[in-house]
Amino acid sequence: MSTETRTATAPAPGTGAHTPEAAGIISDARQRIDDLDGRIIGLVQERMAVSAVIQRERLTSGGRRVNLSREMEILDHYRGQLGKPGTALAMTLLELSRGQI
What we know:
Layout: H1 20-60, H2 68-82, H3 84-97
C-alpha cells in the first residue's frame, strides 16, 4: 500500500477538478458532450420536420392532427429504453413536434 498522500489543490477554473489531469479529462469530456448536444438538437429539428410532413398529410387526407395511439407507442418506447425519465423526454419531443403546420 502506498504511503503517498495526494495534496489537494484549488479546483481548476471551470471544471471543479483538483489536478491538471482531471481538468484535462473533464474538458475533453465536456467537448464531447457539447458535440453530442449539437447532434441531438439537429436530430430533434429533423424529427420536428418529419412530424410536420406526417401531420400535413394526415390533415390533408381528412385525419386528425395528432394520433394518440402512435404517441402512446412512442411514450412506451422511450420509457422502456430510458425508464421514467424517458417518458418526460418523449413528452417533450412530442410537444415540440405538434402543431408545426
